[in-house]
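Chains adopt folds. We examine one example:
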Amino acid sequence: MAKRQRVLVVLSQNELDSQPEPALDRGVFIARETNAMLELFISEYHPSFYTPLLGKTLHNEWKPETYIRFALSRLQEISETLASREQLRVSSDAAWNRHQYDGIMQKVSSIKPDLMIKTIHHDSRLNRTLFNYTDWHLIRTCPCPLMLAKDENTWTTRAIVACVDPSHIHGREEGLDNLIIEIAQWLAYRLRGELHIFHAIEFMPEPMFRLWQPGASYNNYKQEAREEHETLLNELLRPYGIGSRRIHIVESKPADALLSFAKKMNASLVVMGAVSKGTLENLFIGNTAEKVLDALSCDILIVKPNPIEVRETVAEPVFG
């Protein structure tokens, strides 16, 4: 896999208010270990700037360009601190856009980062991840690998789990599993972690099998299906030199199995794919990922098989 050269970290107002975000921590960590350039970015919008409720004086003083100047100043302070303390190449930028997602995608289209990192928050009491509108848009349409950094994850183990499914027809056609493995293997090497390959086999329920093949042996079906999966997985992994100790095949529902496995391994990062059926609107994250994104407490890296054309949007003018 090619060397990562540019990491885009999407920040929020919290970071500007000196409340450190996991995304910045991960970005610094990855940039330091891979000698990548780090770009800090914030896309904001406050509708109160366009209402008279703030009062005439305050409304005149606090215009969008005022906020952008403030954001750029704070980002510059953070960048200079990181450049000095971590010896990193750091740049920063800020945008004013009615929809945060549009501002981020315009930035992605402009600089074409090799990796984007954004913070998402996991509520341990509810065992739920709190995704907002922007998060879901980025998960489905961000053209570059997207790392979702969770606030409870500390990367203590540096165990990286790559989820593959060589039996998935769309993934095979688009080379998605290969891309997942290459990215995960590269990260494990550069971050001094340990890569684990995960694959789940979900057999047809026995009652359904009995209707489909009356009189046939259900155990034979399971054995043959497992052998077929093992053959496909071995063919997929042959070029990568991954030892059998780090290859895990689990017979269970993929979502449940992945959650249990990630917890057992105390994973720091789970790498999984999104599959395209030909158009942007038909891109979906997959049943497994839809179910586990909420429940995983570790960071998640979403990978797509081919670059997706970034939707053109008209930026809302900041000045003038």
Observations:
- The CA atoms of residues 168 and 177 lie 9 Å apart.
